[in-house]
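Why do we care about 3D structure at all? Because function follows from shape, and shape follows, mostly, from sequence. That is the central idea of this module. The next example makes it concrete: a single protein chain, its amino acid sequence, and then its structure expressed as C-alpha cells.
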Amino acid sequence: MQKINEKFTRETKRPIKVMQYGEGNFLRAFVDYMIDIANEKGVFDGDIAIIKPIDFGTLERFKNQDNLYTVILRGKENGEVVNESRVITSVQKVLDAKEDYQEYMALASCETLRFVVSNTTEAGITLDRNDNFEGLPATYPGKLTKFLYERYKAFEGDLSKGLIILPVELIEDNGIKLKNCVKELIKAWNLGEDFENWVDEACVFTSTLVDRIVTGYPRNEAAALCEKLGYEDELLDVGEPFGAWVIESDKDISEELPLDKIGLPVIFTDNQKPYRERKVRVLNGAHTSSVLAGYLYGLDIVRDCMYDEVMGKYVRKVVDEEIVPEVPLNLDEVKAFASSVYERFENPFIDHALLSISLNSVSKWKSRCLPSLKDSLKSKGQLPKLLTFSFAALLAFYSSSDLREDGLHAKRNKGDEYVIHDDKAVMEFFAENSLRDEAEFVKLVCGNESFWGEDLNKLEGFAEKVTEHLKALKACPVCAVKEIIK
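And the structure:
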C-alpha cells in the first residue's frame, strides 16, 4: 500500500505564520485542521512550524510522511452520523527544540511569523525562576520568553513584529497566567525594561477555551481505516466533529485570524468566562450529575445512558430544566449547545466509560453542579430535585469502608466491584463515615467545608432530601432513578 506522502504532495510552501509548541494529537486535529481549511478557503495563506518542546518522543513519523497526516472526525452532528477524513497540508516544518535548536531559534527572525500556539498540558504554564536563559530553557514560559527576546533583538524593537500568543492549555485565564510567567522571567533574567515594554505593547496574549474530544491514533482500527483510505498513515488522528475555540483578548485579532468567517467554530470575545461557565455547567455538569446515578442504575458507558429510556430522560431533564436556565448567556444559544452535548454523548464511535468520568467526583460536583444548584434554588425558590438527587448518587457511589492502596473499593447492587479514585483525604473520609446512619452520614458530608467551601447543611431542606434519596438509592437504584424523573 502507498504511503500518504506517495499519494499526496504539498502543492506549495506558504509563508510560516504559526509556530506551535506541541506535536500532540489535540493540536493536530484542532488548530492545524482549522488552519488547513482556512488555507483552502483562501483566507489565511500561512503554514505552521511545529516545535517539539520536550525530550520525550520522536519526530520520525513526521519526517517519513513529509509532515502530512489525516484527520478523521466521527460522531453525530445535527442528527446525522458524521465520518469524514481530511489530509492536512498546513504543517511545513516539525523541529525538536533541543536537537534542531538553531533552526528553531532562527524562526525568531522570520518576517511572516505572527502567531504562537501551545498545548504543553496544564503543568506547562508554570513559573520556575531558576530556569536558565542560556541555551534552551527547560520550561515552556522560559522557552517563550527567550524566543520573544530573540525576536525583539532581531527586529530592533519594531512594534509591528510582536506576536499573538494563543495558549490552549486547559487552565482558566491561560493567557494571563502565561504572560505573568514571561514578565517574571524578564525580571529574573534582567532582560530590561525596554524588552518588557515591547512585550506589553507589541504582543497580544489571549486566553482561550477549547473543546473537542480527540482520541488520537486508532491503534485497534488503524489497518482497516488505512485500507479504506487507500494509503498508510502512521500519524492518523481521530476526533469528534464538535469543536469550539473561544479566544479572549483586549485587542481584536479576528481580521488576522478569520477562522470564524468561514464557518469554523471560533468565537472572538473580550470575555470568555460565560463560555467557560457554559462548558463547565452544561457539558461537564451533565456528566457529573448523571454518571454516578447511571452506573448505580446498571449502565457502563455514556452512550448507553443516552439511549436508555430512563437514564436518557434523566440526563435531558437535569440539563434542560435545572442547568441550562442558570447559564448567563442567551437562552437559545445555551439550548443549542446542550443539543450538541447530547449528540456528543451519543457518539457511536466513542465508548466513554462512566467509571473513567467518576474520577475525583467530589471536587467535580463542587465546581460543576453546586453553582447550578444554588442558582436554581435562588431563582426558583426551591431545591432542584435532580441536582439534589445527583448529590445523593455521589454519596451512594462513594459508600464503602474498604479502602486499599489502589482506591476505595465498593460494589453496586448487582454485585459488580468498582474502585473509587479521589484525593486520599476524600477517600479516608468516606471509608470512615459512609456506613453510619444515613441522616448522620449526610449531615457529616454536607458539613465538610473542605469539600464544598461552605456548609451545605445551611441550604434549607437539602440534607433531608439527600438523606431520602440516599436511602432510596441504597434500596433499589433502578427504582430511585425511575421515581425521580416522574
